């Protein structure tokens, strides 16, 4: 019964969870990275939106999701094969994670939006590289 009541509380979140599970089921490594970037950008923008509207619970949940995705991206880095690129991405993810935490504490959505914009550029480049 708890499952059914959670569906009724927020059908949009339920749909997104089902959608993400469906997209990850058959995705290869590069497709999963692209999906993580898309989800990360979405989480950062949602956290900023919620922060600007004083929706503390939503802000907290989306910032936590963004942080978890950043940890997942960082954990997936292959420092042996990736060399300087892996080191640069490691620094980027750690820096954005700090921005997310600082922005959440200070209630300033601007750093979240800036991080989302920067990551959207990387996501677009990743998508282009996969398609080409």
UniProtKB/TrEMBL annotation:
**Which GO BP annotation is one of this protein's?**
bacterial-type flagellum-dependent cell motility
Mind telling me which InterPro entries this protein's record contains? FliS, FliS_sf
Q: Which domain of life is it from?
A: Bacteria
Q: Quick check: keyword Chaperone in the entry?
A: yes
Major localization listed first in the record, in broad terms: cytoplasm
**Cellular component, GO annotation:** cytosol
Q: Name one Pfam family in it.
A: FliS
The listed locations are: Cytoplasm, Cytosol
Instruction: Locate the transmembrane regions by residue number.
Output: none
Q: Carries keyword Amino-acid biosynthesis?
A: no
Q: Which Gene3D superfamilies match?
A: Flagellar protein FliS (1.20.120.340)
| Alphabetic keyword roster | Bacterial flagellum biogenesis, Cell projection, Chaperone, Cilium, Cytoplasm, Flagellum
- Of which family is this protein a member? Belongs to the FliS family.
Kindly provide the name given to this protein in its UniProt entry: Flagellar secretion chaperone FliS
The species this protein belongs to is: Sphingomonas jinjuensis
């Amino acid at each position: 019964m708890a499952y059914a009541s959670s569906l009724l509380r927020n059908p949009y979140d339920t749909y997104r969870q089902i959608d993400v599970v469906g997209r990850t089921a058959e995705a290869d490594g590069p497709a999963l990275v692209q999906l993580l970037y898309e989800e990360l950008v979405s989480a950062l923008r949602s956290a900023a939106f919620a922060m600007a509207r004083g929706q503390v619970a939503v802000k907290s949940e989306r910032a936590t999701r963004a942080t978890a995705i950043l940890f997942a991206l960082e954990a997936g880095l292959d420092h042996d094969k990736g060399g300087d690129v892996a080191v640069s991405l490691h620094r980027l993810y750690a820096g954005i994670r700090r921005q997310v935490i600082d922005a959440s504490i200070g209630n300033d959505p601007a750093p979240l939006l800036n991080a989302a914009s920067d990551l959207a550029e990387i996501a677009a480049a990743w998508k282009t590289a996969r398609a080409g």
